[in-house]
Design a protein that fits this description.
heterodimer, A: alpha+beta, Alpha-D-Glucose-1,6-Bisphosphate, Chain A, domain 4, 7-stranded antiparallel sheet, 7 strands, B: mainly alpha, Arc Repressor Mutant, subunit A, 5 helices, about 55% helix, rod-shaped
Chain lengths: ~150, ~130
């Protein structure tokens, strides 16, 4: 790849949800492999692993049939039970690094349950110059739209 | 050389109607600064300032050829990154909704069949 294709685009977003369960319960859904697999992605994915401790890793691998293989690798940096989780993660498409992010998940007791605040800050590298990457972004948008309309 | 293209700056840049107009017209193809300025009711230096904002956030690039400067949209780059983060946001919105559904299902199941009042250590058998 020539240096003229190098780029680093930064992005961040925050999502907030309130759940009718105490912070301990919501946190528990993040802290074990089996609990998290129920909602994080493909529950039966053989390549999903979670070692939930500071310095521990989380990995996932997958992609559309016939498409590129996306590899997710996270490393846990800060864990305050029932209050906060901070992890860094990378995404690769067919072995090419496409993004590096820091994610902060905060749990706060709220009336009737827990408010969860999810913040991701990241850098998207080199336009990852593949249509597959664009399709993944767009596909997830369309999935979200479909779920919202269902 | 690394390009730095924060999404926030792009949104700020596009918050101005003149700059949106410039981007829309450049979408039809490259144009010189004087061509871009002609239909606008403002000084050339004001137009140059708007173009400088668009260039600074990576939406537009320009090249000087002789006495005129030609502007064009920066191909692809920024849109890909914005799409990527929009996709990540959408995917996380879905996951966090699934998490909510799982929590609610668990709570409903517990209400239907209440667990013993004491935590597991207190379980009668054994210890």
């Amino acid at each position: 790849m020539s240096t003229s294709n190098r780029s680093a685009e930064h992005g961040s977003f925050t999502i907030t949800r309130t759940y009718p369960a105490p912070p301990e319960r919501v946190f528990a859904a993040w802290s074990s492999r089996d609990a998290k697999a129920r909602w994080f992605g493909a529950p039966d994915a053989p390549d999903y692993s979670l070692d939930f401790r500071v310095g521990g890793a989380e990995t996932n691998r997958g992609g559309p049939p016939g498409g590129p293989v996306f590899t997710y690798e996270a490393s846990y940096k800060d864990i305050v039970p029932s209050e906060r989780i901070v992890y860094g993660y990378t995404m690769e498409a067919d072995g090419t690094l496409i993004s590096v992010s820091v994610t902060t998940v905060e749990f706060a007791a709220a009336a009737g349950g827990t408010t969860l605040t999810f913040t991701e800050q990241g850098v998207f590298l080199d336009g990852a110059d593949t249509p597959a990457v664009r399709e993944k972004g767009t596909g997830e948008l369309l999935d979200a739209l479909g779920a919202a309309l269902a | 050389m690394l390009k730095y293209q924060p999404v926030d700056e792009v949104f700020r840049a596009l918050g101005d109607p003149t700059r949106r107009d410039l981007v829309e017209r450049l979408g039809a193809g490259p144009a010189t600064v004087s061509e871009l300025a002609r239909p606008l009711d403002m000084s050339l230096s004001a137009v140059l300032q708007h173009l400088a904002v668009l260039e600074a956030c990576g939406l537009v690039r320009s090249e000087k050829a002789g006495r005129s400067r030609t502007c064009r949209l920066e191909p692809g780059g920024l849109q890909l990154g914005a799409d990527w983060f929009a996709g990540q946001r959408a995917a996380w919105g879905l996951r966090l909704d699934r998490l909510g559904a799982v929590l609610e299902a668990d709570l409903a199941a517990e209400e239907a069949a209440p667990p013993p009042p004491r935590p597991p250590e207190g379980e009668g058998a054994g210890t």
